[in-house]
Design brief:
The chain contains 5 helices and 4 strands. With 120 residues, the protein is α+β, with helices and mostly antiparallel strands. The longest helix is centred in the first third of the chain and has 20 residues, at 5-24. The chain has helices at 5-24, 50-55, 59-75, 77-88, 116-119; strands spanning 30-36, 39-45, 92-100, 105-112. Helix 1 runs antiparallel to helix 4.
Amino acid sequence: MDKTKGSLEAEISKALTHWEKSYLGRGSVSVKSDILRDMIIVNLQGILTAAEYTVCQDKDGLLSVKEHRNSLVESGLDELKEIILTITGEEVLSFHTDLSTQTGERVIIFKLASDLQSKL
């Protein structure tokens, strides 16, 4: 592979930011991607709106926002897998995500078919 680890991580962050804006209608404040063995770990900051923070003040609202946001992201999973495949050449075997309603941070983990880090 001709690209460096850092350039791939930056390209993934940029592509996910673009996907968020085009698919979800708004992007996060910052995105940081890290390649670790056979995983890509993505940290997205500032994804909740002011209204969502207000709704998250009680347990039912918190669960509702988490469920809704996770459903939105997972509905675009095929596109996300294609983005990762196009950039890295690696197939995504599994996808894991969670959202903190306290910090407005989302973490995404893409589990790849092979150890990408060792190829860089």
